[in-house]
Amino acid sequence: MGKTAEERIARLRRHRRVRKKVSGTAGKPRLSVFRSTNHIYAQLIDDVKGTTLVSASSLDSEIKPKIGSGGNIEAAKQVGALVAKRALEKKLGEVVFDRGGFIYH
Predict the structure, then answer these.
(1) Which of 27, 50, 37 has the alpha carbon at shortest distance from 4?
(2) Is 56's pLDDT higher than 60?
(3) Cβ neighbours around 19 below 10 Å, total
(4) CA 31 to CA 43: how far, in whole Å?
(5) What own/partner pairs with CB < 8 Å and gap ≥ 24 does 90-96 have?
(6) CB neighbourhood size of 100 (10 A)
(7) What was the pLDDT predicted at 1?
(8) pLDDT class for 37, splitting at 50, 70, 90?
(9) Once rounded to an integer, what is the mean pLDDT over residues 28-46?
(10) Rounded to whole angstroms, how far apart are CA atoms 20 and 44?
(11) What is the reported pTM?
(12) Which domains occur in the chain, in start order?
């Protein structure tokens, strides 16, 4: 097994461990973040109903012209601002952060 495959398996293992502890509701949804090599995706999820309440990504038409590459820090800031704006429009003030197996500090 190559290094990349081992890293992917380790991330998925961490993700399963995090998901056991983190759950979102309609009042306090789960903020799920996924980073690929080229793009970043964020969504607010109500785990009780199993629905996505709000989503944003570096592929959105509002963000894509402002950023050069979808996988850089500026893209992450833009996606975060857009998902926050959309959440406030739906009157969602607090979220539970699901790091998805990635390391955030």
Answers:
(1) 37
(2) yes
(3) 15
(4) 6
(5) 90/53, 90/54, 92/27, 92/29, 92/44, 92/53, 92/54, 94/27, 94/28, 95/24, 95/28, 95/29, 95/30, 95/31, 95/44, 96/22, 96/23, 96/24, 96/28, 96/29, 96/30, 96/31
(6) 19
(7) 65
(8) confident
(9) 91
(10) 17
(11) 0.78
(12) 3-98 (3.30.420.100)
Cα–Cα distances (Å) from 12 to 5, 7, 17, 90, 96, in that order, read 11, 9, 9, 31, 19
Rounded CA separation 25/17 (Å): 19
- The radius of gyration of the chain from alpha carbons, rounded to an integer in Å, stands at 14
Euclidean distance between CA atoms 102 and 27, whole angstroms:
25
Residue 2 has pLDDT above 70, yes or no: no
- What is the rounded CA–CA span in Å between residue 92 and residue 46? 11
One-letter amino acid for residue 52 of the chain: T
- Which amino acid belongs to residue 27? G
Place of tokens 């992917």: 8
